[in-house]
Amino acid sequence: MAFLIYCPGSLCRYHNNKNRKLPFCGYFRSNQIHPKHTFCRNNRSCNFPRAFLSMSLLSKEDISSSSDQKLESSSDQNCEIPVKILEEVQDSSFLRKSIMILSSIGVIDTVYLTVGKLFLTPEIMCHTQGCIEVFKSPLASIFGVPLSFLGFMAYSAVFLLSACPLLCRRKSSTFKNQLHTFSKKALSLLTLAMTIVSAFLMYILFFQIQSFCPYCVLSAFLSGSLFITSSFLHFSSVGWKKWIRHSFVVLLILASITGGALVAFGTASMTFSNQVFDPPSITSHSNARMMKLAERLKSKKARMYGAFWCEHCYHQKQMFGQEAFEKIEYVECSKNGRDSQYNLCREKDVPGYPTWEIDGELYPGEQSVEELEELAKAGN
Hints:
Layout: E1 3-6, H1 8-15, E2 24-29, E3 32-35, H2 38-45, H3 50-54, E4 57-59, H4 60-65, H5 68-119, H6 122-125, H7 129-136, E5 141-142, E6 145-146, H8 147-167, H9 173-209, H10 214-234, H11 242-271, H12 288-299, E7 303-306, H13 311-320, H14 322-325, E8 329-332, H15 342-347, E9 355-358, E10 361-364, H16 369-377
Parallel strand pairs: 7-8
Antiparallel strand pairs: 1-2, 1-4, 2-3, 5-6, 7-9, 9-10
Helix pairs in contact: 1-5, 5-8, 5-10, 5-11, 8-9, 9-10, 10-11, 12-16
């Protein structure tokens, strides 16, 4: 005997459909299901209970002989459970995709901050005093690892935890359920920890430094948004109605995208403008050894090529100290730097910053005191 299979969700819509067009899904013959609609194929791949499909099995004879009233009564009894399951699946999928979008913005933010911390000076990548002070504070690194890199790892973990259940292709429903449950709990705990850390950093920023850092505020807002969205995912069966939850999450996403765009636009407009930047001031003082080394380098007409945004150039200057470095000829190679000699740097084919020129030879990279002393003695 051949049976017609009807999608459970479609049966519910059939109840309120004036045209009373039966939602045909596929055939069931000799214990084989041949689904034709995407809805039915998705239900099979998700390994819903057998009752999910069996409750919608109706024979051709039943359909041809039943009245509309009988079919409506059958659909009322059979549709409540599958529709609830379908709504939970749709709600979970939407929230997970929302978490992936928010965490992606956080990844971009923290990657920029990590690269800036490792290779740039705070003055070039930050355009507010609060941002500069945050990057120079001891809390900017933990055991030598930039705090922004830890944030990058956290956002990446959130993204993976959200994406794994959606990308899983295992047929085992038990494994999928376990992965879904584990990821929900892990997301809640991880985003809670991120929110607590962000709240502490906001306290440091506003009450101790008493300034504003756009990157820090954006990251804190993202952490809070991720925690709220993860809470909706973990407690999907309680609380607000679905449309209210989804609307609130959409607002969080729009606010995050807008905030990220404003921060990126502000950084780009300051970086690529015609504004002239001064190199960061040297705060250390010179000892006798560095004064003697500076005199030797001056006698050999040594030059140091650098850029105002270069972190390693700043470290090299700090090594000499303020008094000793005044004796060194410094060449600014950045177009936006004060007293820029960009064309000279191109003529010399400077490979990177800093680069020392001693006796006509170029020595790229940050040099130690011992290395510079050896170069200063050479040729004497």
